[in-house]
Structures
1.
Amino acid sequence: MNNDRANAGGKEAGHSVTGGLFLAAVTGISVFFGFGLTIAMAKKKDPSFFAKGLEAAGELRESGGSLVFRALGRATIYSVAGFGLFCCTAWKLMGVNSLQEFREKMQSIMPRIPRSENPGRSDFRSLGELMQYVSDGEESDQEKKQTKTQ
């Protein structure tokens, strides 16, 4: 029996790590492509000024591109370190030793959010069916507003 619990706990921990790695990878890829898309759009919009930004001007010590990357690097370090410090401080002040204890402590501190039944439909076979449902809902909302004003 204990062996089954140990295996389930190991699978759950592995699943959490895999999920965290997946989210980190998706975040990293989206940041990379978002930044690359922004750079590409700036280059496409005005190539001459973009080229000037990559070269160091006479009175400046570094180019605009290197200045941007240095600022982005520092901002990333500051934000990650600041949030990490915040999390560690909250963790220590709460006196918890695991994520399970943290979750239980937060559930005891925070108010419960009441769950309400979703009055709408949530099972659609296609995007077209979803769009039809949304447009029908908007039409009925407009009819309700018109009857209220009359």
2.
Amino acid sequence: LNLGLLTHEEASRAELRQGDALAADGGSAGATHVYVANLCFPAELNDRLVSLLSHLEGSLRCVMTLSSLPLEGGVVRGTRCLREAPPRYVEMTWTKRFPVQYYCC
């Protein structure tokens, strides 16, 4: 988890979770940062994801996705604070530079 980007104290507070965020016990409650590899999600699944994100707004700070989420006025549809930020280019297994979409409160 710590590649020198976090202090020991910061790393000790980080918790990585993997699972089905849409499941009742998906473990997304209280999440501050969410990464979703939604590159091949159908529109209906992205809509369910947006609904979940709207319920996390009390704790959520930033969402990173591989495909864009639906927006209304620069904010993720159905949320109050998830504003679109400029994408960042990240190295993936299939390419050196892939645009990751950022939405932050």
